[in-house]
Amino acid sequence: MTQMVAIAGHSHMTRAAQELGVSQPALSAALRKLEDELETELFHRTGHGVEVTEAGRVFVEHAQITLRAAGKTSEAVRSLVGLETGSIKVGAGATATGYLLPRAIQAVRDEHPGLRFSIREAGSLQVAQGVVSGELDLGIVTLPVVHPRGDELMVVHEIADELLMIVPGGHRLDGRKTFRWADLEGDPVIAFEAGSAVRGILDAAAGAHGVSLEVVMELRSIEAIVQMVRAGIGVGFVSRYGLGEGEGIRCKDGGLTRKLGVVRRRDRFLSHAAGAFERALLAEG
Asked: Is 174 helix (H, G, I), strand (E, B) or coil?
């Protein structure tokens, strides 16, 4: 197509061949081959050069449209590969969304401001489902992955976390560094919603020591739990990432530890944009 557009532009075989960097006989042969395939003449040969026929005019017009579209396609691909554009879809729980993702997102956007992020805050099961279905590029979940199709996911990075207790000012445990489950007997507890991975860890740990938590409020936000505790409604449990240095009370009956995993599908390659974000996220943990 490029050859025919050049011939039409110059109305001369030799000058078109010079522009294309090919020999004039080779260009003439290519034109004859195309005309044989189309079973019609595209150019009239004259003593001074060539003139485009009606069929040739139609061919050249469509060729120019196709070449422009191809150029735009190439520009779009180069832009995406160069991380000038693109989107990244990530799912995570409250801890990762509020305290791990922001730094990674900022690091990527500092280098590639054209990238767009779509963040879905949800429980580990919902995040795993989103990654399995392809709705999400990456997910951050509490390990192990609990999902019927969990074998389709791979853990590319692990992040250690610990749940710490926070209490209202003036509480009998205020100022303590550690607590035992028996210390919470009868205390109102502000917890994450039932069915969440964090809630499962708390209920299992307390139950192992014969304590049934008196949950009076279920929330999904770390900041909301912190504010409710400050208001004196009860004690709460949040990730160490949501607290300042030295804040929080550690469980003396065994640390409330967990591992967060960055997961993606085993059988899919990440886009350049998602790959860049994955690398930034791994650097954070």
From this structure: coil
Q: What are the structural domains, with CATH classification, of the chain?
A: 2-81 (1.10.10.10), 87-159+260-284 (3.40.190.10), 161-258 (3.40.190.10)
Query: What tokens were used for 48?
Result: 């001074």
- Model pTM score: 0.66
> Which residues, other chains included, contact 247 with Cβ-Cβ below 8 Å and sequence gap of 6+?
164, 166
Kindly report, residue by residue over 205-258, the tens digit of the pLDDT.
999 999 999 999 999 889 999 999 999 999 999 999 999 888 999 999 988 999
pLDDT tens profile 166-196: 999 999 999 999 999 999 988 999 999 998 8
d(CA 233, CA 237): 13
**Do 103 and 237 contact (CB within 8 A), yes or no?**
no
Residue 122: alpha-carbon gap to chain centroid: 15
Pairing of strands 188-192, 256-265: unpaired
Q: Between vectors from CA 226 to CA 220 and to CA 229, what angle results, nearest 5°?
A: 110
For residue 144, whether the previous peptide bond is cis, meaning omega lies within 30 degrees of 0, is yes
The rounded distance, in Å, linking the Cα atoms of 34 and 8 is 14
The tokens describing 120, both together, are 């879905």
Q: Measured between alpha carbons, how far is 150 from 132 in angstroms, rounded to an integer?
A: 8
Q: Residues near 94 by Cβ (< 8 Å), separated by ≥ 6?
A: 121, 192, 220, 221, 222
Complete DSSP assignment for 1-41 = -HHHHHHHHHT-HHHHHHHHTS-HHHHHHHHHHHHHHHTS-
How far apart, in whole angstroms, are the C-alpha atoms of residue 158 and residue 285?
8
